[in-house]
Amino acid sequence: MKIVKPYGSWKSRVTSDLIVAGTISLGDVALDGEDVYWVESRPSEGGRSVIVRRTQDGNIADVTPHGFNARTTVHEYGGGAYIVDRRTVYFSNFTDQRLYRQAPGKPPEPITSAGEKRYADGVVDRGRNRVFCVRADYSVGGRDAVTTLVSVDLQGADAGEAVVSGNDFYSSPRLSPDGDRMAWLTWNHPNMP
């Protein structure tokens, strides 16, 4: 039996959940030698962000194991949740915002302590065995985080040493090819970089 209803008032079998349930968004492409890495956001896994690797011979596999979600909330909206260096992946885990190191074929290991600090947007400095990254520290009290550029030991031997501080926001630390200089973006609220 056909029922006529006003425009837009009928129930459709095509729902927004149905449309996005199988949709995987891709982003944050990184190269490491001949390997290509990217992040897949998977609605079927509760929106979990998974780092995926494609090798030169075409093999594609998840790097991030179940129980981990490569996503950061630095600056609230995130960004730069992982970096790769010689097949070792360093990433921020969404549930605890700690920075993890994941060597090939091994489970992730935390290299920062638990607490109210968040990490993002890193760059590896092999010569110093460190990663320079943005850290948002919520442990200092108040509503807003104190954001700094920090240097964290790749083996997790320290809590992260502040390298640059004093402005409201930092992003995009990058090392010169010889590792002697670093550039970054910085700005103070309400101005943009």
How would you explain this protein's 3D organization?
The chain has one domain: 6 Propeller (Neuraminidase), CATH 2.120.10.30. By secondary structure, it is mainly beta. It has one helix spanning 16-21, and strands at 25-32, 35-42, 48-54, 60-62, 82-85, 88-92, 99-102, 109-110, 117-125, 130-137, 146-153, 161-164, 169-175, 182-187. Helices cover 3% and strands 43% of the residues. A hairpin with a 5-residue loop joins β2 and β3. Strands 1-2-3-4 form a four-stranded antiparallel beta sheet, with no helix packed on it. A four-stranded antiparallel beta sheet has the order 5-6-7-8, with no helix packed on it.
Question: Could you give the topology of this structure?
Answer:
Elements: H1 16-21, E1 25-32, E2 35-42, E3 48-54, E4 60-62, E5 82-85, E6 88-92, E7 99-102, E8 109-110, E9 117-125, E10 130-137, E11 146-153, E12 161-164, E13 169-175, E14 182-187
Antiparallel strand pairs: 1-2, 2-3, 3-4, 5-6, 6-7, 7-8, 9-10, 10-11, 11-12, 13-14
- The top-level CATH class is Mainly Beta
Residue share in β-strands: 35-45%
Structural shape: globular
Task: State the helicity in percent bands.
Answer: under 10%
CATH architecture: 6 Propeller
Spatial order of the strands forming the largest sheet? 1-2-3-4
CATH superfamily: TolB, C-terminal domain
Number of strands: 14
Name the structural class. mainly beta
**Topology order in helix (H) and strand (E) letters:** HEEEEEEEEEEEEEE
